[in-house]
């Protein structure tokens, strides 16, 4: 079925729609402002094109040593505002770590649900389920309240982990035909965008263009055995691929 740009707009711009999931992609309401233009000009071609990799193995992960070293310096916030090194999440255990586009994103809420649906498998293998979002602890707590996500949730207000892992960012990887169809599918399944979170200043100016990914790491700070970087919004890796990396 052909989908017109009008129909996409009608589906994605309905802040008062109700949902049964509470698990609610933001097309920023305004055109790209001057701050965003400056950010977009700084996005390298490499950052937009080298965006997908899946690696399995113990050490020699396939992730750049530079990224591993940078992760050692990254600190994130738990839901109470406590600062912790991100590598502590997998220092003494194995963890599946999902990186959201932002806490209001409908596609990220769907990803959270599809990972949480396999939490029993992860629990049986002693694997922790973690979600990190670029935003404040207030946004993170609202996300938890709305989605009832049963994994651990952390905030990265400085986007430091996203920069260390060189996740894709920019208009060209946010507004794509596949992403638009994924939004439609998500709405049809009952997921909704949180527009208040989505239009907070930091998300509009910076987080709205950010893409995420999924990694499997630990035990051991340098042991990143799998990483998948989203090449566009809604680019979920197959759940079987993640489970093979974390629980096989």
UniProtKB/TrEMBL annotation:
Cellular component terms (Gene Ontology): chloroplast
The superkingdom listed in its UniProt entry is Eukaryota
Give the stretches traversing the membrane.
none
InterPro entries the record matches = PXL2A/B/C, Thioredoxin-like_sf
PANTHER family referenced in this protein's UniProt entry, alphabetically: PTHR28630, THIOREDOXIN-LIKE PROTEIN AAED1, CHLOROPLASTIC (PTHR28630:SF11)
Q: What is this protein called?
A: Thioredoxin domain-containing protein
